Amino acid sequence: MKDIISGWIELSGLPKFTTSIFPFLLGAVVAWADGYAFNRPVLVISLLAVFLLSEFCFVLNASSIYADLKRKGIDVGQVEGTSTLHSTAVSGRFNAFVKGDITVKQADIGAYLCVVAAIPLGVLLQVHFKTGYLTLPLGLLGVFIAYSYSRGLRLSYHGLGEIALTTGVGWLTVFSGYYLQTQQVNWLPTIVALPWMIDVFKLKLTRNIPDFECDQMINRRNLTVRLGKRVIASLYAPLTICAWLAFIPLLFLDIGVPYIFFVLLAFPIFFTAKSLMLKQTFKKSLVIKTKGEGETKEQISAITKNAFSGMILIPVALIVIFLLKIIGTAVSTF
Protein backbone atom coordinates (compact mmCIF):
# COMPACT_ATOMS: atom_id res chain seq x y z
CA MET A 1 0.00 0.00 0.00
CA LYS A 2 2.88 2.38 0.79
CA ASP A 3 4.33 1.83 -2.70
CA ILE A 4 0.94 2.48 -4.29
CA ILE A 5 0.55 5.75 -2.40
CA SER A 6 4.05 6.93 -3.29
CA GLY A 7 3.47 5.88 -6.90
CA TRP A 8 0.19 7.77 -6.96
CA ILE A 9 1.83 10.92 -5.65
CA GLU A 10 4.57 10.63 -8.28
CA LEU A 11 2.00 10.25 -11.06
CA SER A 12 -0.03 13.20 -9.79
CA GLY A 13 2.70 15.73 -10.47
CA LEU A 14 1.75 18.05 -7.62
CA PRO A 15 3.32 21.24 -9.09
CA LYS A 16 0.78 21.02 -11.92
CA PHE A 17 -2.06 21.61 -9.48
CA THR A 18 -1.15 25.30 -9.56
CA THR A 19 -2.59 25.37 -13.09
CA SER A 20 -6.07 24.64 -11.77
CA ILE A 21 -6.03 25.97 -8.19
CA PHE A 22 -4.67 29.47 -8.95
CA PRO A 23 -7.08 30.29 -11.80
CA PHE A 24 -10.00 28.99 -9.72
CA LEU A 25 -8.92 31.26 -6.87
CA LEU A 26 -8.63 34.09 -9.38
CA GLY A 27 -12.28 33.66 -10.35
CA ALA A 28 -13.31 33.79 -6.69
CA VAL A 29 -11.20 36.89 -5.98
CA VAL A 30 -12.66 38.65 -9.03
CA ALA A 31 -16.12 37.94 -7.62
CA TRP A 32 -15.20 39.57 -4.29
CA ALA A 33 -13.65 42.54 -6.10
CA ASP A 34 -16.91 42.82 -8.03
CA GLY A 35 -18.77 43.39 -4.78
CA TYR A 36 -19.97 39.90 -3.88
CA ALA A 37 -19.60 38.47 -0.37
CA PHE A 38 -16.83 36.04 0.52
CA ASN A 39 -18.36 32.59 1.03
CA ARG A 40 -15.69 30.63 2.90
CA PRO A 41 -17.39 27.18 3.09
CA VAL A 42 -18.14 27.28 -0.63
CA LEU A 43 -14.54 28.21 -1.42
CA VAL A 44 -13.08 25.42 0.73
CA ILE A 45 -15.42 22.72 -0.59
CA SER A 46 -15.06 23.79 -4.21
CA LEU A 47 -11.26 23.91 -3.94
CA LEU A 48 -11.31 20.33 -2.70
CA ALA A 49 -13.49 19.36 -5.67
CA VAL A 50 -11.09 21.11 -8.08
CA PHE A 51 -8.17 19.24 -6.47
CA LEU A 52 -9.91 15.88 -6.92
CA LEU A 53 -10.81 16.56 -10.55
CA SER A 54 -7.24 17.67 -11.23
CA GLU A 55 -5.98 14.39 -9.75
CA PHE A 56 -8.41 12.53 -12.00
CA CYS A 57 -7.17 14.35 -15.10
CA PHE A 58 -3.42 14.16 -14.46
CA VAL A 59 -3.25 10.53 -13.34
CA LEU A 60 -5.61 9.26 -16.05
CA ASN A 61 -3.59 11.03 -18.73
CA ALA A 62 -0.28 9.61 -17.46
CA SER A 63 -1.64 6.06 -17.26
CA SER A 64 -3.18 6.38 -20.74
CA ILE A 65 0.13 7.38 -22.34
CA TYR A 66 2.04 4.66 -20.50
CA ALA A 67 -0.51 2.01 -21.51
CA ASP A 68 -0.29 3.12 -25.15
CA LEU A 69 3.51 2.94 -25.09
CA LYS A 70 3.41 -0.56 -23.63
CA ARG A 71 0.86 -1.68 -26.25
CA LYS A 72 3.32 -0.48 -28.89
CA GLY A 73 6.00 -2.62 -27.29
CA ILE A 74 8.13 0.37 -26.26
CA ASP A 75 10.38 -0.22 -23.25
CA VAL A 76 9.71 3.00 -21.34
CA GLY A 77 12.37 2.28 -18.73
CA GLN A 78 15.00 1.97 -21.43
CA VAL A 79 13.73 4.97 -23.38
CA GLU A 80 13.81 7.38 -20.45
CA GLY A 81 17.04 9.38 -20.37
CA THR A 82 18.24 8.09 -23.76
CA SER A 83 15.91 10.00 -26.05
CA THR A 84 13.64 13.03 -26.13
CA LEU A 85 10.61 11.02 -25.07
CA HIS A 86 8.81 12.83 -22.29
CA SER A 87 11.67 15.04 -21.25
CA THR A 88 9.54 17.97 -20.10
CA ALA A 89 8.63 18.63 -16.48
CA VAL A 90 4.97 17.69 -16.92
CA SER A 91 5.33 14.69 -19.21
CA GLY A 92 6.05 11.09 -18.41
CA ARG A 93 6.61 10.49 -14.71
CA PHE A 94 6.50 6.80 -15.58
CA ASN A 95 9.04 5.70 -12.97
CA ALA A 96 6.22 4.66 -10.64
CA PHE A 97 4.92 2.30 -13.33
CA VAL A 98 8.37 1.09 -14.38
CA LYS A 99 9.40 0.31 -10.78
CA GLY A 100 6.14 -1.52 -10.18
CA ASP A 101 5.01 0.78 -7.37
CA ILE A 102 1.60 1.10 -9.02
CA THR A 103 -0.12 -0.54 -12.00
CA VAL A 104 -2.15 1.16 -14.71
CA LYS A 105 -5.29 -0.51 -13.37
CA GLN A 106 -4.62 0.77 -9.84
CA ALA A 107 -3.94 4.27 -11.18
CA ASP A 108 -7.17 4.24 -13.16
CA ILE A 109 -9.21 3.02 -10.19
CA GLY A 110 -7.75 5.78 -8.03
CA ALA A 111 -8.54 8.37 -10.72
CA TYR A 112 -12.16 7.26 -10.97
CA LEU A 113 -12.48 7.25 -7.18
CA CYS A 114 -11.50 10.94 -7.26
CA VAL A 115 -14.53 11.64 -9.44
CA VAL A 116 -16.74 9.56 -7.12
CA ALA A 117 -15.50 11.67 -4.19
CA ALA A 118 -15.99 14.95 -6.06
CA ILE A 119 -19.63 14.39 -7.11
CA PRO A 120 -21.10 14.57 -3.56
CA LEU A 121 -19.19 17.83 -3.07
CA GLY A 122 -20.89 19.25 -6.15
CA VAL A 123 -24.29 18.13 -4.87
CA LEU A 124 -23.53 19.69 -1.48
CA LEU A 125 -22.58 22.99 -3.12
CA GLN A 126 -25.65 23.17 -5.32
CA VAL A 127 -28.30 21.77 -2.98
CA HIS A 128 -27.17 22.86 0.49
CA PHE A 129 -25.18 26.00 -0.23
CA LYS A 130 -27.37 26.98 -3.20
CA THR A 131 -24.49 28.00 -5.44
CA GLY A 132 -26.65 28.05 -8.56
CA TYR A 133 -28.15 25.71 -11.13
CA LEU A 134 -24.93 25.59 -13.15
CA THR A 135 -22.83 24.15 -10.31
CA LEU A 136 -23.20 20.47 -11.19
CA PRO A 137 -23.17 21.03 -14.98
CA LEU A 138 -19.89 22.96 -14.66
CA GLY A 139 -18.39 20.16 -12.59
CA LEU A 140 -19.59 17.51 -15.02
CA LEU A 141 -18.16 19.53 -17.90
CA GLY A 142 -14.81 19.45 -16.10
CA VAL A 143 -15.08 15.65 -15.72
CA PHE A 144 -16.02 15.27 -19.39
CA ILE A 145 -13.07 17.36 -20.60
CA ALA A 146 -10.61 15.57 -18.29
CA TYR A 147 -11.84 12.13 -19.36
CA SER A 148 -12.18 12.91 -23.06
CA TYR A 149 -8.67 14.33 -23.24
CA SER A 150 -7.04 10.88 -23.19
CA ARG A 151 -9.95 8.41 -22.99
CA GLY A 152 -13.35 8.13 -24.66
CA LEU A 153 -13.26 10.75 -27.43
CA ARG A 154 -9.44 10.89 -27.02
CA LEU A 155 -9.36 14.55 -27.99
CA SER A 156 -5.59 14.80 -27.52
CA TYR A 157 -5.18 12.12 -30.20
CA HIS A 158 -7.20 14.03 -32.79
CA GLY A 159 -5.78 17.55 -32.66
CA LEU A 160 -8.37 18.81 -30.17
CA GLY A 161 -6.50 18.28 -26.92
CA GLU A 162 -5.04 21.78 -26.90
CA ILE A 163 -8.50 23.31 -27.31
CA ALA A 164 -9.92 21.05 -24.59
CA LEU A 165 -7.11 21.98 -22.20
CA THR A 166 -7.53 25.69 -22.93
CA THR A 167 -11.27 25.40 -22.29
CA GLY A 168 -10.92 23.38 -19.10
CA VAL A 169 -7.82 24.85 -17.46
CA GLY A 170 -7.93 28.25 -19.14
CA TRP A 171 -11.60 29.25 -18.99
CA LEU A 172 -13.65 26.81 -16.89
CA THR A 173 -11.54 27.19 -13.75
CA VAL A 174 -11.81 31.00 -13.66
CA PHE A 175 -15.48 31.07 -14.64
CA SER A 176 -16.39 28.39 -12.05
CA GLY A 177 -14.50 30.20 -9.28
CA TYR A 178 -16.49 33.34 -10.05
CA TYR A 179 -19.84 31.60 -10.51
CA LEU A 180 -19.75 29.61 -7.27
CA GLN A 181 -19.25 32.82 -5.30
CA THR A 182 -21.86 34.85 -7.19
CA GLN A 183 -24.37 32.45 -8.78
CA GLN A 184 -24.23 34.84 -11.73
CA VAL A 185 -23.28 34.35 -15.38
CA ASN A 186 -21.05 37.26 -16.33
CA TRP A 187 -18.53 38.18 -19.01
CA LEU A 188 -16.14 39.53 -16.37
CA PRO A 189 -14.35 36.25 -15.49
CA THR A 190 -13.92 35.43 -19.17
CA ILE A 191 -12.33 38.82 -19.89
CA VAL A 192 -10.02 38.40 -16.90
CA ALA A 193 -9.14 34.84 -17.97
CA LEU A 194 -8.30 35.72 -21.60
CA PRO A 195 -4.51 36.31 -21.16
CA TRP A 196 -4.31 33.12 -19.12
CA MET A 197 -6.24 31.15 -21.75
CA ILE A 198 -3.93 32.26 -24.57
CA ASP A 199 -0.83 31.44 -22.56
CA VAL A 200 -2.17 28.00 -21.57
CA PHE A 201 -2.75 27.22 -25.24
CA LYS A 202 0.73 28.48 -26.17
CA LEU A 203 2.51 26.51 -23.45
CA LYS A 204 0.65 23.31 -24.30
CA LEU A 205 1.83 23.60 -27.90
CA THR A 206 5.39 24.24 -26.72
CA ARG A 207 5.46 21.32 -24.32
CA ASN A 208 4.35 19.02 -27.09
CA ILE A 209 7.64 19.64 -28.91
CA PRO A 210 9.89 17.45 -26.70
CA ASP A 211 7.14 14.79 -26.70
CA PHE A 212 6.95 14.83 -30.50
CA GLU A 213 8.57 11.42 -31.10
CA CYS A 214 6.62 9.75 -28.31
CA ASP A 215 3.31 11.15 -29.56
CA GLN A 216 4.09 9.94 -33.06
CA MET A 217 4.83 6.44 -31.76
CA ILE A 218 1.44 6.13 -30.06
CA ASN A 219 -0.36 7.90 -32.93
CA ARG A 220 -1.26 10.85 -30.73
CA ARG A 221 -1.86 13.34 -33.52
CA ASN A 222 -1.98 16.57 -31.55
CA LEU A 223 -1.47 19.94 -33.23
CA THR A 224 2.31 19.77 -32.87
CA VAL A 225 2.44 16.41 -34.64
CA ARG A 226 0.01 17.60 -37.31
CA LEU A 227 1.66 20.96 -37.99
CA GLY A 228 5.29 20.13 -37.22
CA LYS A 229 7.84 21.55 -34.80
CA ARG A 230 8.83 24.50 -36.99
CA VAL A 231 5.26 25.74 -37.43
CA ILE A 232 4.55 25.43 -33.71
CA ALA A 233 7.81 27.26 -32.91
CA SER A 234 6.76 30.07 -35.28
CA LEU A 235 3.44 30.47 -33.42
CA TYR A 236 5.15 31.15 -30.08
CA ALA A 237 5.88 34.85 -30.67
CA PRO A 238 2.42 35.87 -32.00
CA LEU A 239 0.66 33.95 -29.23
CA THR A 240 2.88 35.61 -26.62
CA ILE A 241 2.06 39.05 -28.03
CA CYS A 242 -1.66 38.19 -28.11
CA ALA A 243 -1.49 37.22 -24.43
CA TRP A 244 0.13 40.56 -23.62
CA LEU A 245 -2.47 42.47 -25.65
CA ALA A 246 -5.21 40.62 -23.76
CA PHE A 247 -4.10 42.48 -20.63
CA ILE A 248 -5.34 45.77 -22.14
CA PRO A 249 -9.10 45.15 -21.62
CA LEU A 250 -8.37 44.64 -17.91
CA LEU A 251 -7.56 48.35 -17.66
CA PHE A 252 -11.14 49.21 -18.57
CA LEU A 253 -12.99 46.87 -16.21
CA ASP A 254 -15.76 48.70 -14.40
CA ILE A 255 -14.88 47.43 -10.91
CA GLY A 256 -12.57 50.22 -9.79
CA VAL A 257 -9.10 48.67 -9.93
CA PRO A 258 -6.47 51.47 -9.84
CA TYR A 259 -4.21 51.44 -12.88
CA ILE A 260 -1.07 51.43 -10.73
CA PHE A 261 -1.87 47.92 -9.49
CA PHE A 262 -1.49 46.53 -13.01
CA VAL A 263 2.25 47.21 -12.79
CA LEU A 264 2.40 43.76 -11.18
CA LEU A 265 1.74 42.26 -14.60
CA ALA A 266 5.38 43.09 -15.35
CA PHE A 267 6.35 39.86 -13.55
CA PRO A 268 4.59 37.41 -15.92
CA ILE A 269 5.55 39.60 -18.88
CA PHE A 270 9.23 39.41 -17.86
CA PHE A 271 9.31 35.60 -17.81
CA THR A 272 7.27 35.19 -21.01
CA ALA A 273 9.57 37.71 -22.73
CA LYS A 274 12.58 35.74 -21.53
CA SER A 275 11.12 32.49 -22.84
CA LEU A 276 10.28 34.27 -26.11
CA MET A 277 13.91 35.25 -26.67
CA LEU A 278 15.01 31.69 -25.94
CA LYS A 279 12.33 30.38 -28.29
CA GLN A 280 13.58 32.52 -31.16
CA THR A 281 17.03 30.97 -30.75
CA PHE A 282 15.50 27.49 -30.66
CA LYS A 283 13.44 28.24 -33.78
CA LYS A 284 16.61 29.18 -35.67
CA SER A 285 18.32 25.98 -34.53
CA LEU A 286 15.41 23.96 -35.94
CA VAL A 287 15.83 25.67 -39.29
CA ILE A 288 19.62 25.51 -39.64
CA LYS A 289 20.12 22.45 -37.38
CA THR A 290 23.17 23.81 -35.61
CA LYS A 291 22.39 22.33 -32.19
CA GLY A 292 23.19 18.90 -30.91
CA GLU A 293 20.58 16.83 -29.08
CA GLY A 294 21.93 17.74 -25.64
CA GLU A 295 21.94 21.45 -26.38
CA THR A 296 18.43 21.23 -27.84
CA LYS A 297 17.14 19.54 -24.69
CA GLU A 298 18.70 22.26 -22.54
CA GLN A 299 17.10 24.92 -24.73
CA ILE A 300 13.66 23.36 -24.45
CA SER A 301 14.07 22.96 -20.69
CA ALA A 302 14.98 26.64 -20.30
CA ILE A 303 12.11 27.73 -22.57
CA THR A 304 9.47 25.65 -20.78
CA LYS A 305 10.75 26.67 -17.34
CA ASN A 306 10.46 30.38 -18.10
CA ALA A 307 7.25 29.91 -20.06
CA PHE A 308 5.63 28.02 -17.19
CA SER A 309 6.79 30.65 -14.69
CA GLY A 310 5.35 33.41 -16.86
CA MET A 311 2.11 31.53 -17.42
CA ILE A 312 1.43 30.68 -13.76
CA LEU A 313 2.34 34.23 -12.70
CA ILE A 314 -0.58 35.56 -14.76
CA PRO A 315 -3.30 34.33 -12.36
CA VAL A 316 -1.02 34.95 -9.35
CA ALA A 317 -0.40 38.58 -10.35
CA LEU A 318 -4.09 39.11 -11.10
CA ILE A 319 -5.08 37.61 -7.74
CA VAL A 320 -2.78 40.07 -5.96
CA ILE A 321 -4.09 42.98 -8.08
CA PHE A 322 -7.74 42.27 -7.26
CA LEU A 323 -6.94 41.57 -3.60
CA LEU A 324 -5.24 44.96 -3.38
CA LYS A 325 -8.40 46.50 -4.82
CA ILE A 326 -10.51 44.71 -2.18
CA ILE A 327 -8.18 45.84 0.62
CA GLY A 328 -8.18 49.39 -0.70
CA THR A 329 -11.98 49.46 -0.78
CA ALA A 330 -12.21 48.06 2.76
CA VAL A 331 -9.73 50.62 4.10
CA SER A 332 -11.55 53.52 2.45
CA THR A 333 -14.84 52.56 4.14
CA PHE A 334 -13.39 53.00 7.64
Structure write-up:
It is a single chain. The chain has about 325 residues and is mainly alpha-helical. It has one domain (about 1-334). The protein contains 14 helices and no strands. The chain has helices spanning about 1-10, 20-35, 40-70, 75-80, 95-100, 105-130, 135-150, 160-180, 190-205, 210-215, 225, 230-245, 265-290, 295-334. Helix 2 packs parallel to helix 8, helix 2 (about 20-35) packs antiparallel against helix 9 (about 190-205) and helix 7 (about 135-150) runs antiparallel to helix 8. The longest helix is centred in the last third of the chain and has 41 residues, at about 295-334. The N and C termini lie far apart (about 55 Å). The model is unreliable at about 80-90 (pLDDT under 50).
Strand content: under 5%
Q: Report mean pLDDT, rounded to a whole number.
A: 88
Give the quaternary arrangement of the chains.
Answer: single chain
The profile of the biggest β sheet is: none
Q: Enumerate the spans where pLDDT stays under 50 for 5 or more consecutive residues.
A: 78-92
The dominant shape is: globular
Kindly give the count of domains. Answer: 1
The structure class reads mainly alpha
Topology, number of strands: 0
Measured between the Cα atoms of the first and last residue, the distance is 55 Å
Helix share of residues? Answer: over 70%
Radius of gyration based on Cα positions: 20 Å
Query: What's the total helix number?
Result: 14
Order of helices and strands: HHHHHHHHHHHHHH
